[in-house]
Amino acid sequence: MLSKLKKLRGRGFAELADRGRQKAGAWAERAGVLGSTRMRSDDELFGLFESERITSAEQLLDNFRAIVNDRFYPSFHDPAATISVIRERFPAEEKQIICRADRVCRGVFDVLGYEGLDFGRPIPDWHFDPVSGKRSPMTHRSLISETDADQTGDKKVIWELNRHQYFISLGQAYWLTGDEKYFDIFKSHIDDWIENNPPKMGLNWLSSLEIAFRSISWIWAINFFVRSPSLQPDLFLRILKSLYANGMHLENNLSTYSSPNTHLTGEALGLYFLGLFWGDTRDAARWKETGFRILKDAADLQIRDDGGYVEQSTQYQRYTADFYLSLLLLRRMEGLPDDEIIAGKVEKLLEFLQFCERPDGRTTLIGDDDGGRLHFLDGSEFDDFRPTLSLGAAVFGDGKSKHLPQDSSPEVTWLLGAEALHTLDSVSIPVETSKAFDLSGFYFLRSGWKRDSNWLCIDSGEHGFLSGGHAHADALGVVLSVKGIPVLVDSGTYNYTTDSEARDRFRSTAAHNCMTVNGTSSSISVGPFSWDGSAKCRLLEWRSDNDETKFRGEHDGYLRFGVRYEREIEVNRDWKITVSDSISCDRPDSFEFHFILSKEVEAELESGSKAVIRSREKKEPLVTICTSVNGDAGEQRLRIEPWSISPRYGKLIDSSKLLLTVRGQGDFTVVSSLEIAA
Question: What is the pTM of this model?
């Protein structure tokens, strides 16, 4: 009882009322009252349309065929022109699309970081996790724990399949080939899904965000397949009934207070999609208005004025950019002007992501990454954010949102149609090479915007949004690329709930290019999305000019040991990097300095204080690290240890780390000098 009272403390009446209403709704669903789990009848669905009298599924399908492609992205207005540009500008894309679609036809799925998963054939088992071998129970959604993997296996794996984003690959392949087999797979899958996922029952009705993503995928699929001669009115009617049930569920089960992050904004975008799709039906305007209002309010709350996303996660920042770019595009299609607040925030958001981009075109996954995306329109790797940046450049016509013209993505054409690439061909290249995002606590430096440039990121930001559920213990961490090659990296995320030891390890300070004290983290995790206190960073100095860049910051994460800690980073014009870690403590402690190496490099020790890092492929030297200790500290020891990094949720690869250990007491400074090879 006491724990429940503590949770209630500090909550306003509006939150308590909303949570109570949702719990009452779940009880009504379980009890089967008020038709809460019933699909609408044919006549009830026909009665939703106010502009004309609908009397049959045939009439309904004919009407949608006449208008549906005009409501969404420009690419749907002229499929032939869209396909022509894809073939002309991205000649390898057609083969890749067909390959992805054919794998789906064979029942082979690449989900998150897992490749070649078999969920059952010929139709997937929508409740099965092939990684753990567990099948989630067919019980009411409210009786399934969102964080307990014992009952369901990894929900992320099941949910990713059930987002049905692979329907887009089937639709693209259908447009490119005209082969009805792709429609047949879509039909068999969606028909089976509707049959085996009755409203409110099972894992696939647990998360409103998943329902929003699934709704968006179905709407994409309808736009691709609506003119297929194989699409029959009875299937179309079943799909519409399910989409209507999705909209009603979303409206009544928003994550307004439980997850006011990308869960809420994704749900709001799903509502907007559904409202736009349903046109002039009685609920559509309300859904659109609700979705837009939430997204506008969230833009102010979730996107800082410098463009950083509040959860301190680059992947969730990319999610947010995609959500808002889609909103802007859909509203433009309706003839509506850009909302100035949203447009201004999104431009800043894209600028932040631009500076997060490494010279190789990929983005370091700082903080959590859950492996998901709003849509998969091309074959780009998960950590390649250039499709989003290219889309931003096309939307705003601004070189700040785009790296180089050759980085244009097929995704832009699939969204904006044949004319969009002309905008990208004319935008300029960024020239600014250092940037301080003070409100978010990120500082970037690069030697240029070429593929072989050097790049440095320093993290001195807040621990994260609200409870810091997607934050890592990475206070004062750094990430480094040399000559375009990632050298020091973030270890990634790996999983959320299925392996608690791994979850703690990948969120720990030791998984980042940071200092630990006595082997412990600067922030201590308790549970998959909670922390028992977190380190608070404070910027002491930042200045950058043509001759030198200097950063100084401190955090209080080790005051529990009586340790005061400051990190200073200097970079001269020749890109010699000096990291000075100043420590003051009253008792002897062990201090460990971690250097997480990317899979593209390898290290060799030359002494107990010197290591050379080389590219794994060409064996050419990239960086020499020399360490020393000034002050009252004991002997230092530099060694190489095996380590694992996770480039995407669910995926592990072998790598290594350099680990410098110093035992000391009093006041001393550990200096790590990084000499870039000529």
Answer: 0.94
